[in-house]
Amino acid sequence: MIFFITRYELKKYYRDGQSRMLVSITAFLLLASMVLSVRDYTLAQDQYVENLKQARLNWESQTEKDPHDAAHDGTYVIKPLYPIALLDKGIHAFSGQVVHLGAHERKQSSLNQAKDHSGLFRFGELTPNFVLLYLFPILIIFLGYKTFTEEKESQTIRLILAQGGSGMQLALGKCLALVVLTLVLGLLFCLALFVSYAALNLPTAEGLSEWLALAGIYFFYYIVFISLTVLVSSLSRSSGISLVTLLAVWIFITLIIPKLSTNLAGRLYPFPTLQAFKENIYKDQQSGLNGHNFWNEAAQDFQQKVLQEYGVETIEELPVDYGGLLLAEGEKYESEVYTKHFDLLKAQYHKQRKVFRWNSLLSPFLSVRFVSMALARTDYNFQWHFEEKAEQYRVELNTALNMNIAENAKGVEAYKAGTDLWAEMPEFHYQWEGTDQIMKDHLAEYGILSLWAVTGFLSMLFFSRKIKVV
Amino acid sequence: MINRRQLIKTELRLLLRDYAFLGLIGLLFFLMFFASWNTHRHLVAKKGELDVQLEVVKENDRALALQIDSLNQGLATYEDQYTLPTSAVRLTYNNHRIAWKPVDAFNLIAIGQSDLYNNYKKIVLYFNDSYERASHELVSPIEQLFGQLDLAFVWTYLLPLIIILVSFNILSAERESGRLKLIASQPVKVAYWLIVKIGIRFFSIFALLLIFTFFLLNVYGVPVFQHSSGFGELISMLFLYTAFWFFLSLVVNLAGYSSGRSLILLTNLWVLFVFLIPSVVNQLSNELHPVPTRLEMVNHHQHVYNEVEAKLEEEMEGLFRLHPDWRSDDPVTKDRSNSTGWNINFLAKQYLAQLKHQPQALRYEEKIDERNRWADQFRILSPAMIFQNAVTDLAGTSTRYYRDFLRQSQEYAQDYRAYVFKGLFTNHAFSSKEVKNLPAFTFERQHLQSNFWPNVLTLLAYLIVISVSIFAFTKTRTRIT
Fold this sequence. Notes:
The structure holds 2 protein chains of 2 kinds. Helix content of chain A is 69%, strand content 2%. By secondary structure, chain A is mainly alpha-helical. Chain A has one domain (2-465). In chain A, strands 1-2 form a two-stranded antiparallel ribbon. By secondary structure, chain B is mainly alpha-helical.
């Protein structure tokens, strides 16, 4: 009976011009968005490689200079794009593309692409995840809103029930039809995606598990919408009421709750102002080492420690340049202070993140969005991960430059390092965070989404059993 | 013929008894209230950030002036030129300036791009600005991704849906319930009856919207009477945008579809105008008007900086030819072992690199403006885009306003840098009077041409086109069954 209903529903969708048009438009938008995104990704990737090369070239072509001056002039590291990012750009446009690495200071990412766009940008871009997150659920609603009400309005439900069918079978059959349709569209999309990756020789991320995790989260999301659609249709008296209710649910889930969550998270756990953040860092730095301050207490302690280590009485007796050692040690201390304050900021973000997590009990959209961004490495966790690795590299680079002073500047007036030093400095190699870790961090999202899917599905079954024949 | 007044009175009475309509209006006002409250909070935070920054500058200047006075009166001595208060080095490193854009009255209606931009720009002289390093408040990019709930969002996205929900089935519901036959039997044209019915809904919603907007603006301290022209513009745009969706609903009603089909058609149009067209235009602007990544500017600047360093002597000669009044015979300025001499060398490199980089940077900014202008002109494809453009412009929170502010701040930074560097290069001792009267930034609000009339005319054009369709439908017989 269930499969019979499913077959009948699918035939109905096929024969109905309106359904055919809706499915075709969605499929077209999905494919178009993918073609555009693949193009964007390859362009961005080319630019990334080119600019990375140029950045290193700029670093290596510096003239002879004091290595600490080179540290002040600094260099920069550029955020890479993970292959899945072509499906979900996440916060990429909002989070800055480059981190400047200079002496004494840890900086945030800068060059926020969204700033360069007009307000139109806030309407969203036609990307695959825009279609998958917003338009696909609308398609499910449009196809399924009258799945029960139509039977009620035309009284065919009496015939079905009279022939021994139950409300639950009807719901399952109709639900299955929508699942099949979603799967067909999904598979079509996956096929196009893999053809694009293969044809353009794009890197295919970490492995199949990553793609399955991504497909799984979207599948759960659609199961939620399919269950809700059939549920609302089974409870509604007319198709109009069913459609209005479902649209309200869609708006609530995809537009209103995400914005309200943003407001709530920002209100409950606000970030400090830039001034307060800097002042706190400044206060902590005052009590510690600073590579340019030879006289404070921390510098005096460090001097004693160095003298003891080398077994000498005065700085002049040291076999190395004391200034270089102080700069290197000062850099480490300053970085620790920055790490402490950036960690506080990160902790604040994690509190905000919990607000989003709780609110995903009201909107499955939030769970999907966060997991999708995380797997595409375009979420805020990726930004933290990248900035932390960049900071480690900054300390490593500055230590190497300052130690060069310590080793070579002793007794040399206005020491300048030769140009070959720049090329000897290590390069920055970013290692992506593993999928296992990401999945572990997002177990709650999977749990909440599963809860949504199971609750939605069971509610659909429960209420369809008690369907009223009007 | 049925008395027109009687018809209107009856319809009004029916509307007031329609709980679905009242509920939706209630929801709209609740969302407007929440959006205003939220935007107000956002503005208070922005104003707070700005005030803190202005206070820091004021406090630093006050402290510096006092120290100069103490030094001049012989009450204090300074060994190091980094801390010497009369030195331009001290002014350069410790007393930055602020270029700022005030939080405007009408910011309340649209957060726009103000969650991406600061309302201030730190003018710092000791490094190049190709990374926008100094003025970057701490904001979660998740917040920017999802955006804030503001009045512009409620009006652009949700108001059309509410209009659709209160008007999609006016005719079809009557037809489906069989009452339309009864109405048609009365001495009134069905099309006329429908226009009156939708017209009443339109004017009721618009009047309530007007009153509530006026109320909210007043509650949150927007001086509406002082900015009556701005309020007039806002109301005109709201009127036209609301009218557009009601006109569209009227056409779909007149087309004689079933309730479900009318609702699907109208929501499809909503998705088309509010989601699809804007996102397609946005995407196409990137494809057809590509702008290279800003990383190229960073790289270019660094490349130029290396070139300047490599030929510094030659470049310095060029600098003094450009600014003959910066040349000085004071030996302090030549000696790189003291902080003035060292900084002249260091800051001259930065300055020269910035000068050489500037033409490229300006060309890049021009490309961005071109791309944005190109995309903005396609707003005519969607009333939602026109409306959003109009309200963010009116609020002064659109990208072009912020970019104009940054341009003004850059011009100011150039003048200020030239002023301080002249003092630095000539080892000028700054007096407290000079510190108190340092060149200050003034923001000019009226720099940009208003888009109000083009937006009004385009929305009117939409209304005229739909009116023609309405007229065509009224000429045909309305389907009764």
